[in-house]
Amino acid sequence: MLKILSGNKVSELDQSFIKHENISSWQLMERASLAFSNWFMQSHGNSGDKVFVFCGPGNNGGDGLAIARQLFDKGFSVSVVLFSSLSNSSKDWQENFKMLPEDIGKFQFDDFDFQLADGGIIIDALFGIGINRPLEGKFLKAILSLNKIGGEKIAIDIPSGLPSDDLVEGEAFLADVTVSFQFPKLSLLVPDHVKFVGDLEVVDLGIPSSFLERFESPYYFIQSASVKQGHTKFHKFSHKGDFGRVLFIGGRKGKVGAIILSAKAALRTGSGLVHVWAEGSSEDVIHASALELMTEGEEVMKRIDDFDALGIGPGMGEIPEMVFEEILRSFRKPIVLDADALNMIARHSELWDLLPSGSILTPHVGEFDRLAGKSMDHFDRLKKAKTLAEKNKIYLVLKGAYTCISTPDGKQYFNSTGTKHMATAGSGDVLTGILTSFLGQGYSPFNACVAGVYHHGLAGEIASKEKVRGTIASDILEKIPESFLKLGID
Ligand SMILES: NC(=O)C1=CN([C@@H]2O[C@H](COP(=O)(O)OP(=O)(O)OC[C@H]3O[C@@H](n4cnc5c(N)ncnc54)[C@H](O)[C@@H]3O)[C@@H](O)[C@H]2O)[C@H](O)CC1
Ligand SMILES: [K+]
């Protein structure tokens, strides 16, 4: 798992890593710049476009100068636009400035006509994580001009103007792609900043995750290696009982499809036995949609404890509080709660106390705000999610572009998979199915959450490669098996 450090911890990290590797700060900058340039050559190597690098006075600008040199060496036509003189720039900036080849175009901001860069590749190296106040003066002027002209816009480490761990104040660079070093900065993961960040790429500086562990931070970025480790292995003699018996409750009032999506997702995630308790009249459609599903009626309440996991809520509508309460009182293992089950809790706050510890709640932003009250911005929402998870000893899966799992021990894990094409009806029901399936297979709630959000996102990525904006939730669940294959899980 990759730790996400706050901006003010990065210089500590740099110092410590430089010492550990016995390298100079310039060498670390060269590594970072090469990581960017290698990414650039892979994605833009064949582009004949002119490259313009806008370099601020700090080390982000220093990266920009090194990248300008490296891309020039690879045959690109490169110009740099500078905002500071040698004497008022950082030490490694100065080193890299001296190393600039003669044939690179060099402009001072005051003399630069921004129309020259129109249509080229614009690399933003004005400010990185060292920004400590809103943009003003020539920096603001430059960003406003860059945001107006055409061409592809790429930010180094973070779009200039965004603080690394806080909400933007004023203007910032509108990037098409942000190439962040080592780990994504927290502020790149919030929906409030999506228009600045564009697509997010994270490039490795060779700092091992174990090294990052030395630094205090509650935030993590989920990566495939740790997802792989968290999977339970099954063997030749495993039988369907080992893969769990799960029950889904929901699918009423014209929304039976929601619970079918959850149930089918559980089958595709590997559940041995999948039961559905939906409205009586929907039995036929459930059987017709998947022959492997079993349907239940009210009498299932008597043997509800026989199940290994429950998934409640998709398409459930409003059920009597008494029934909901009885389910929570009768089933004391972790439960997955989604959609209408979350709305029940939002309306009846006394239900919080009945949630089995380790339960998983999967609100989208709207549902979350009903549960926790309105938030000023996503940073505020993340704080509330942390508090709710700690207080109620539950796992809170706040769904979105970088779904965030808040755990009872106060940590927050951001998912790294998924695409914009997953924002489609029923996508969340599929996630409920996957999570319930993992719980039923005996995964700890934490492993279920991490594996669940990761496979959901990966299945969505695979599905949307074929179906792009026509991707529907059924496509996502059909690709769950491929997401296992991709990770080498049998
Ligand atoms: N381990 C890594 O990730 C590495 C990252 N690198 C790059 O270094 C930058 C951070 O560099 P730093 O010098 O600390 O900060 P900045 O370049 O962002 O600029 C700070 C500089 O600017 C002044 N300043 C701050 N805000 C403003 C403002 N609004 N207006 C004017 N001036 C401002 C501040 O006082 C400083 O003087 C990181 O993002 C990476 O790109 C390294 O290359 C190596 C390892
Ligand atoms: K930048």
UniProtKB/TrEMBL annotation:
Catalysed reactions, semicolon-separated: (6S)-NADPHX + ADP = AMP + phosphate + NADPH + H(+); (6R)-NADPHX = (6S)-NADPHX; (6S)-NADHX + ADP = AMP + phosphate + NADH + H(+); (6R)-NADHX = (6S)-NADHX
Coiled-coil ranges (or none): none
E.C. number: 4.2.1.136, 5.1.99.6
The YjeF C-terminal domain, residue ranges: 223-487
Binding site for (6S)-NADPHX: 59-63, 128-134, 157, 258, 315, 364, 429
Keyword rRNA-binding found: no
Cofactor remark: Binds 1 potassium ion per subunit.
Example GO molecular function: ATP binding
Record family assignment: Belongs to the NnrD/CARKD family. In the N-terminal section; belongs to the NnrE/AIBP family.
Protein purpose: Catalyzes the dehydration of the S-form of NAD(P)HX at the expense of ADP, which is converted to AMP. Together with NAD(P)HX epimerase, which catalyzes the epimerization of the S- and R-forms, the enzyme allows the repair of both epimers of NAD(P)HX, a damaged form of NAD(P)H that is a result of enzymatic or heat-dependent hydration.
Oligomeric form and interacting partners: Homotetramer.
Protein name (database record): Bifunctional NAD(P)H-hydrate repair enzyme
Source organism per UniProt: Arthrospiribacter ruber
